[in-house]
Amino acid sequence: MRTLIKHALAATEPKESLTLKGWIRTRRDSKGFSFLELNDGSCLTSIQVVVDAGTPGYEAIQKFTTGASAVIEGRLVASPGAGQKWEVRAKRIELVGEAEASYPLQKKGHSLEYLRTIAHLRPRSNLFGSVFRVRSRLAYAVHQFFQERDFVYVHTPIITASDCEGAGEMFRVTALKGNIDEKPAADFFGKPTYLTVSGQLEGETFACALSNIYTFGPTFRAENSNTARHAAEFWMIEPEMAFCDLQGDMDLGEEFVKAMARHTLEHCAEDLGLFAKFVDKGVLERLRFVVERPFQRVPYTEAIKILKSTSKAFEYPVEYGLNLQSEHERFLTEDHFKSPVTVFNYPREIKPFYMRLNDDGRTVTAMDVLVPGIGEVIGGSQREERRDQLRENMRFQKLREEDYGWYLDLRRYGTVPHAGFGLGFERLLMFLTGVANIRDVIPFARTPGSAEF
Ligand code: 4AD
Ligand code: MG
């Protein structure tokens, strides 16, 4: 039976016999014996293996090179060396797969850019092992958070005919050859279809039946923004709550981000330690701050006033009615409030049709949660539940009613105030780990001009 290295290292007493399987990180030879560092990805730390020259399998020791895979049978004993509690005295070693001398992860300290070009091997580096263990743990925490609160998990479709965000940034899905716009009716689904930019509209139909729901799935956007925080394929979490208004929505969004920070501190301590040492010195302090301190809230109009009154020079203009750019968002959260901040009630012109119109007739119940280092991590709103107003919103945004008949039906049959948001999972990971580029928190990044692997 195989023991994972993480369990071997957490042992409370020595063990007469255990079997480890993993990849060699380094080997050092001394007179009469060798040291191996073995890592199996179950935790950051590698285990030290001492192999005496007479051990069965030692004949092949020269092939136990960096990157090779091996099985080690031995005894777990207290380590005399500093910095490690346990080590393994090998009784038998077996080479499973040799690594050619060209194995690219020989030395420490490769650049992130270089590691992106070997995305198939980078999970074997310390940094990426940590990133992807945390990613997995947080995916689990997302489900735990919502399931504990009685939210129902809904799988919304990936192929869709509607552009939820109305931004026209969709990837076309087609089975046609040649000119795909010539006869859309002849296409596989009988009309133009796309990869989803959001599961929200379908999520709303389930919230208006099961009360509280969430989605967690892949999301696609053909935005041509080559930035450190945009990917063409990313994962989004979208809760939707019936009988809920903007206040309740902001409350849930903030509670969710706090819970994810707390979970990381409690369950990912070893990996966080690596981020604090090599990626972002302030990461632990930031997570504790997020857990302990309340988020700030500010209406959009007020945020514009703050941005206009600062002496800081921005690249993009600040004006009521314009979108907040990343530099503005970061100024608000990093320099002005020095805290995560939720901006709400945006002008209706810059937001999608489904957001609820406020009584002022000018703003909608939008809310964005902004965090230091990233900017927007959550975008959400209360939804327009009044049928006539929703139709007016659709005319305002030049959408065709007949494309949204089913969505309007929710307002015909037992409509309720409801609200929700979308959180970009990769942006959350960037925030919680300090990793600065979205390409480094997703296993295989899809960005403009790049779909390797
Ligand atoms: O603000 P967005 O566009 O909101 C929606 O899609 C709503 N339908 C959500 C809802 O109310 N149910 O996107 C939500 C979040 C953003 O705040 C951001 O974190 C992330 O999705 N996001 C991206 N992440 C990575 N790459 C991209 N290209 C992203 N676009 C949005
Ligand atoms: Mg947004």
Q: Keyphrases for this structure?
A:
5-stranded mixed beta barrel; binds 4-amino-1,4-dioxobutan-2-aminium adenosine-5'-monophosphate; 29% helix; 16 strands; alpha+beta; 8-stranded mixed β-sheet; binds magnesium ion
Explain what you see:
Strands 6-10-11-16-15-14-13-12 form an eight-stranded mixed β-sheet, sandwiched between helices. The protein has a five-stranded mixed barrel with strand order 1-2-3-5-4. Strands 7-9-8 form a three-stranded antiparallel β-sheet, with no helix packed on it. Helices cover 29% and strands 25% of the residues. The chain is α+β, with helices and mostly antiparallel strands. It has twelve helices and 16 strands. Helix 3 packs across helix 6 and helix 5 packs across helix 7. The structure holds 4-amino-1,4-dioxobutan-2-aminium adenosine-5'-monophosphate and magnesium ion. The site of magnesium ion (MG) has 3 residues, from strand 15.
Brief overview:
This protein has 453 residues and is of the alpha+beta class. The protein has helices spanning 5-9, 112-117, 126-148, 200-210, 246-267, 269-278, 283-292, 300-309, 326-336, 387-396, 405-409, 425-433, and strands at residues 15-30, 33-39, 47-52, 69-78, 86-97, 152-153, 159-160, 172-173, 193-195, 212-220, 233-242, 296-299, 341-347, 363-371, 375-382, 418-424.
What structural class should be given to the helix and strand makeup? alpha+beta
Rg, Cα atoms, Å: 26 Å
Bound molecules: 4-amino-1,4-dioxobutan-2-aminium adenosine-5'-monophosphate, magnesium ion
Strand order of the largest sheet: 6-10-11-16-15-14-13-12
Q: How far do the termini sit from each other?
A: 33 Å
What is the chains' assembly state? single chain
| Count of distinct strands | 16
Uncertain stretches:
none
Series of secondary-structure elements, N-terminal to C-terminal:
HEEEEEHHEEEEHEEHHHEHHEEEHHEH
User: So how many helices?
Assistant: 12
What is the share of helical residues?
A: 25-40%
Q: Work out the strand percent.
A: 25-35%
Overall spatial form: elongated
- Main beta sheet: 8 strands, mixed
Mean pLDDT: 96
